[in-house]
Design goal:
about 140 residues; alpha+beta; 3-stranded mixed β-sheet; rod-shaped
């Protein structure tokens, strides 16, 4: 009758444990990268949709940098609400959008173009929006 000895089984269990210890930390890093990429793609989709949105709504849209958050307990208040044509992107918590200059979309979907930087808190991604359609494309020149 053939079988495995206790030593052989322990060696196999040790090897499996060692491999798991090496692989599992990398899996969590890959998962985090996947989540950031998914969220980044969602923000890029929102950027690409601003021109068609201006056409659908028949109005001009202005995109500005994400304002700095107010410190907790701050007595300073905004006295004026943002203009109705200003648009805010739906960003994940802690993310910011930085623009060199505000980007304006006319009612017909044509935009002024510019550079957009997404700041995730741990990484920064730069994109160029080229007129007239302003489809985001990676911008390595920063």
């Amino acid at each position: 009758m053939g079988g495995f000895t206790l030593v052989e089984i322990l060696v196999v269990v040790f090897i499996i444990g060692l491999m798991s210890a090496l692989v599992l930390p990398r899996v969590s890093v890959l998962f985090e990268r996947f989540i950031v990429a998914y969220r980044r793609d969602d923000v890029l989709r929102q950027l690409a949709d601003l021109g068609p949105r201006a056409v659908r709504e028949s109005r001009a849209i202005h995109l500005r940098s994400t304002p700095e958050p107010e410190p907790a307990g701050s007595a300073r208040r905004q006295l004026q609400a943002p203009a109705p044509e200003d648009v805010r992107l739906d960003l994940p918590s802690g993310w910011k959008v930085e623009l060199d200059t505000p980007i304006n979309y006319r009612f017909d979907g044509v935009c002024s173009g510019g550079r957009v930087t997404l700041d995730t808190g741990s990484q920064r991604y730069a994109y160029r929006l080229s007129p007239p359609h302003c489809v985001p494309s990676p911008d390595d020149v920063r």
